Amino acid sequence: MHPALADDLSRLPELLQSARDFAAREVSGIGDRPVVPPAETTKARPLPAEGVGAEGALARFAERWAPGFSASAGPRYLGFVTGGATPAAVTGDWLTSAYDQNATGGDASSASGLERETLGWLRELFGLGEAHSGAFVTGATVSNTVGLALAREWLGERLGVRVSEVGAAALGPVDVLSGSPHSSIPKALSVLGIGRDRLRTVPVLPGGREAVDVARLADALEALDGRPAVVVANAGTVNTVDFDDLRAIAELKERYDFWLHVDAAFGGFAALSPEHAHLTDGIDAADSVCVDLHKWLNVPYDAAVQFTRHRNLQVRVFHNASPYLGLPTGEPDFVHLTPENSRRLRALPSWFSLAAYGRAGHREIVERNVAQARRLGEGIAAVRELRLLAPVRLNVVCFTLAGSATRERVHALGRAVAESGEAFLTPTFYEGAHALRAAFSNWRTSETDTDRVLEAVTRAAGSPRPATGS
After folding, report:
1. Which residues form a coiled coil (predicted)?
2. Rounded CA separation 318/136 (Å)
3. CA 456, CA 423: separation in Å to the nearest integer?
4. What is the model's pLDDT at position 42?
5. How far is CA 445 from the centre of its chain?
6. What is the pTM of this model?
């Protein structure tokens, strides 16, 4: 054995304690460090010939790379839709690496059983029935891709071909309809050989909405003259967290032949809140569902789930035909359900967080984040230099500059907020306006953090902070 490996093995408990102490210092101070550190270029070095051992590697990382990492797991990183990692989820994630299970099958490990139990908990959490089965994947993009891959196979069934055998070309032109599709949808269509150009955008409801106009969707389906199609419905849009009427869309299946895929990447968590659970009404009727867990479940990257009512199609698409893997009979191994052969046990952090905090704990995170988004929205509405672009429906605040809100000015505002070290927001374009969006999904975020974000945005916009009344 290489001397450095042998030495590390003999001192493994001590090394793990060093890593634990370093991580504890980093995590405990995450609320005080700059959310986005100053831009500095760290030059790449040549590959070491012999290496310095784990302790030396930790020291070099701490010196060269750690200072440039963002505080994306912290309470004021409001860009994209980024959760943190609850204490229980971090515990599960560390054990995931320690056990290093390849969660593809159940022959020699209980890992698959744990994943199935976790999927059952999540299915219950999101209001899905037992007809839905699922699997863990890396993120919402892969979850959407898996769902649309099953839709592609379903379309083939309708036309009398097996796309998994003969290829997507056998389908001819495919019609994919959606009101406000996330950018991962055309990406998935590209990967699947359907093509980005086959996505047909259906008009949305008037009045600044991002929810599809169901009547116009019915018209679009009617115009297909009986051809089967795919409908991508949204449970929480990126800019304003708008929800399609899932129940009304599902009822269209009584008249038209289409596969219903629901992108509920983060909006699916509305089901946890009694005040907002109605927004996901009808999700159980979907043929496939995407939910991203490293968003509002607050587990570490990467983790998402996909659910479907059509496991037979899933096995047909993802079956790995090899003698050493066996046939997918009975309860198929996960190797036959996702694009991956090698699969990290990414279910374990979710299992830990759900076991530790239950439905009530995760509902509290959702409801607290929603209240914080409302608080920020109210504060921004009171600043004369800023303008809300949409009501705060759930956990995202979409706003812009009053007056001339050019791309340059709005992006400069976002950079100024980031350079302050106080917060990080991401830009968008909504209702013909360049804008910024603040997405609340971190379990650590407090009212104090929310007020610090408002103060940073207000200062960057050139106005003194208004009174908050508290």
Report:
1. none
2. 14
3. 7
4. 87
5. 18
6. 0.96
